[in-house]
Design brief:
twelve-stranded mixed β-sheet, alpha/beta, 8 helices, 2 domains, single chain
Length: about 425
Amino acid sequence: MCIKTLDNSCPLCDAIDTLAARSMGDQRRAACERMHELGWPSRSDDAFRYCPLKEAANTNWFPAPVADADASLLESLDVAGTGSRLVFVNGRFDKTASSPLPEHTRLLAPMLGDMELDRAADFTDDPFAQLATALVEDGVVIEVPDGRSVADPIHIVHLTSTDADPIASTLRIAIRIGKDARACVLETWAGEGPALLTPMTEVELAEGAHCDHARLVEHGEGVLHMGAIASRQAAASTFESVVLTVGGQTIRTLAHASLDGEGAHAALRGFGIGDGDRHINSRLRVSHMAPNCTSREIFKHLLPDQSSAAFTARIFVNHGAHGTDAVQTSRNLLLSPDAKSWSRPELEIYADDVKCTHGTTTGEIDPAALFYLRARGVPEPTARALLAWAFAAEVVNEVPIASLRAHLARRILAQLPGAESLDEGVVSL
């Protein structure tokens, strides 16, 4: 992970040393040391077997500079129906572009050193998660007390801004929901590269808590988005999360969900559309640690051009976690003969009386369905776009905010040839 410049220094290591002198000294240094032990990943590492990182490995990454939000870009990312909008640029809070902090929400920067991080999951074997800890400067902490609800979704926007040098930045989001409390959080990641982003979201749910979460990746070209989502759940809690990818160069999501209390439910969903040689990579682990928990995983990809997607997921059922009900699904629709997909669903079960299933499909647009539409006068490009949209809609319809569903639909349809003739009635959500 350490990239030396001509004077034999590493800009990121130097930045980490500077940050360690301000806060989290031991934790930053330990994360940096572990990052060096792991090294820059390659295809020989099982966790990165399908991830194209060779070019990035030879790039000199620099700490992200201080920058202001681009007003025109912010306007295009606006999602109606959300409440407060908190804007970060290169990992730092932009007060001018943001709404006032909503109730139960604080900025992480003043709390660094006093707040325990990395407690929702163990990511010590992931170099990018270690980089996220070593470089963190700011973020959002959402703590909802017992029995309370956040009325409107909180929209967290992170923009990347660089002049020329390839930059690296991160942002930490900590969501802690009390007993029988409820909140909805939307993340949007956008901006141009070259950039390396390592977002980390940690979710902790008390008994009966409910959290809706969505991460929307809308980066431009040249952005590596190497993110992580970790969740821990007490009894009867619900975590609904969806990762939506419509931009970026290489987008990887590492997700760990631990259902620690009886009757907890987790739904992890993902949808991505390729463009050019974009690569979308999802690596999941859902751990059923208590009886009578349920989980649902469904990830779908639309892959045109030379784009690719990889899905590796494991359902782990602990001793005594009887009554587990878990479903894992990966589906890929190839829109080009040059597109590729890989799926590796896995089960690891140490309990009886469980219902665990996994499945994966990869294919092209159904010729019979295409013929059906063409026989009724629908032009072929439009028919293909309509069938591709129908494939995507199963995941898009599960997005918790109606205006975000419409926002995402526009992004997807803009990348589908032939979709320009589809009216709002066809894609109504």
